[in-house]
Amino acid sequence: MHTVWKGAISFGLVHVPIKMFSATEDKDISMRMLHKTCGGPISYVKQCQNCNVDVNAEDIVKGYEYEKGRFVRFEKEELEQLTTDATKTIQILDFVDLEEIDPIYFQKTYYLSPDQAGGNAYNLLLEAMKQSGRIGIAKISIRSKSSLAAIRVMDNCLAMETIFYPDEIRPISQVPGLPEAVSANEKELSMASLLIEQLSSPFEPDKYTDDYRSRLMEMIQAKIAGEEIHVAPEQQRTNVVDLMAALQASLEAVSVPAAEPSAAADKGAAKDKKRAKGDKKAAAEAAEEAAEALINAEEGISGRRKTVADAEEPLTINAAGDIEPSPKPRKGGKKKAKETVS
Fold this sequence. Notes:
Blueprint lengths: L2 E9 L2 E9 L39 E6 L2 E5 L1 H5 L8 E8 L9 E9 L4 H14 L2 E8 L2 E10 L2 E7 L22 H14 L11 H14 L18 H12 L8 H37 L15 E3 L5 E3 L8 H5 L4
């Protein structure tokens, strides 16, 4: 790995010399801009908008535009005065719980390793943070940019996450179109919760891949080999009109056939069976109430209440919770079936 920064971690009077390495890398496929006519690469030159001449690097200074077209200029030496020895130090200010930091604050991750003779101090900080379960909140300056940072333990390595300052986070109140009051249909909410449960699993990062990058690289290799490229356009998705139908289709899509039984599977199946039994009982009760209401409405008799068994064609609830006609009673049972309660 290439060292991107050298400095030290400071907490209290302890000084830990470290080297910093980028923990992530950009895998995006880089493309050059080409002239459509001849295929030559496009170059970008630095040109003065007033003089219309190309400007060399040594003739460029930095400036801040405080009004449209009006700048205050800074020489390189002026900006370097802001950089002191303290900016080469990661100064830990507080130790907090990781759960207290919302992920919106995180920017980029770096690995930190001991530098020179800082091994003992590095190991001390590493082990102390492991035992405490806390992370350090620190300040650091990288490439003339000051940033907050979170120092935490990853396996046997200290890692640093640069994080945004609070005033760099836009408030949610600025997001247009958010509902003032959140409400949801109970049946739709129940199905959505069931769908979330069906899709829940441990986080396994290796199973996620960049499909776009893979397809693009395949196209690049095909073009290098001189092959014709024909990509069929994907069918446009229509807006969801029937939310219940979409939820039901989603649940059916994630349903998994039963696997071979095992000790762990049997245990999980027992829980699922128990839960399914409760769901079926609740569904049967709800269906029975619906059937009773339907029968009473069809009879239209004021002040008269009937149960499911009172219908001219008796109904029953099957094991799946569905309503269906009852089998015709045997002889001797008709009289009882036809009795009504006034």
